[in-house]
Amino acid sequence: MASTYNANGDNGDAGSTEGELNEWKHRAPYKVHDKAEHFKVRYEGSCHCGKVRYQLSREKPLDAKYCHCTTCQKIHGAPFQWAAIFHKDDINFTHGHHDLGWYESSEKTCVHKLPCKVSCAYCRTPIMDEGRNMILLFPTLIDFKTPEDRKNFEISCHMFYPRRILDIPDGKPKWSGINNDSDLIEDSPPEAVNELKRKRQEEGEKKDDNKS
């Protein structure tokens, strides 16, 4: 059930954890009452004002990307979004469970309805995009202790590159839309382009075999 948004940023009943509206507080990635005694802390992150703070247990994200779509440009007020993908169980909120605000971009509503965008309800810093199975975190919120930590979040590709505000000639694959579901363009590595052509040719041959 999509819950209603309160002025204090809490989607439930002013800090309560009971009732249907507060069901989200007992599930990952929030789990308000979990002490996380066995949670191995690898990184720590926070919003600008510090009301929302979290820990991460995974050393490297499942993937990291730059997204150049116009929605990311508008919501972040930046040329692109730097996003890192994690499992929902990889994050542990230590402060600010009740200082979160929601935004469901397709319907433009402030409800906790997946997929949705999560931000600090006080300073409005974007915290993450919560999907049905994964979360997309923003590495600029993480306090990296070493250059090696920062390198763990190096991107694998660019998405929606034709909508870019500026060119980034970094030699990374450039996708016209969502990676693996669109075309490689611009200065994408030739080996990546050739590999994509090979895979799609094999997929086409398999479809032809199934038809015959």
Task: Describe this structure in a few short sentences.
The chain is an alpha+beta fold and 212 residues long. The chain has helices at 70-76, 147-151, 190-211, and strands at 43-46, 53-56, 63-67, 81-87, 91-95, 100-103, 116-120, 126-130, 134-137, 157-159.
Helical coverage, percent range: 10-25%
How many separate helices?
3
The total count of strands amounts to 10
The whole-angstrom Rg is: 19 Å
Tell me the structural class. Answer: alpha+beta
Q: Which strands sit side by side, in order, in the main sheet? A: 6-7-8-9-4-3-10
Average of pLDDT: 86
SSE ordering: EEEHEEEEEEHEH
| Beta-strand residue fraction | 15-25%
Separation, N- and C-terminal Cα atoms: 46 Å
Low-confidence stretches: 1-5
Apparent shape: globular
Explain what you see.
The chain has 212 residues and is α+β, with helices and mostly antiparallel strands. It contains three helices and ten strands; from the N terminus they run βββαββββββαβα. The chain has a seven-stranded mixed β-sheet. Strands 1-2-5 form a three-stranded antiparallel β-sheet, with no helix packed on it. 29% of the residues are buried. Mean pLDDT is 86; it is low at 1-5.
